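can u do me a favor
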């Protein structure tokens, strides 16, 4: 999914909007990189494009990487979240899974906004979103 997003092959090709430059931030690698090597480029960015996937995984790595702590200070940066990337900003979120032991999980988001988001609601490509009807 990451490759498809970066290369503009998704239904939401945010990387194809005419940006002057585009960088990739791999959250799972950030804990192994000295903070001063990645914080300045993030602080200088005009926009952060945060794609979807698994919102639990995304929130975990945003926290573990230190990005979640940095986001509130980025007052002039536009945060563009798609799917799980938008859900992660809420104070709380719910997600459905095909796991019979945990079909619906509620967890704490990053709390960047004070409302919840329901991406894909009634979208034909996501019949279970945000929960089975």
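np, heres the sequence
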């Amino acid at each position: 999914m990451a490759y498809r997003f970066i290369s503009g092959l998704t239904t939401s090709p945010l990387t194809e909007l005419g940006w002057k430059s585009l960088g990739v931030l791999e959250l799972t690698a950030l804990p192994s990189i000295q903070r001063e090597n990645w914080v300045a480029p993030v602080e200088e960015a005009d926009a952060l494009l945060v794609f979807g996937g698994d919102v639990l995984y995304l929130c975990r790595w945003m926290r573990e990487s230190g990005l979640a702590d940095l986001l509130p200070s980025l007052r002039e940066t536009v945060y563009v979240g798609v799917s799980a990337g938008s859900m992660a900003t809420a104070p709380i979120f719910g997600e459905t899974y095909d796991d019979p032991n945990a079909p619906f999980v509620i967890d704490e988001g990053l709390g960047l906004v004070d409302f919840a988001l329901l991406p894909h609601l009634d979208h034909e490509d996501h019949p279970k979103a945000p929960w089975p009807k």
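The first strand starts at residue 47 and ends at 50. hope that helps!!
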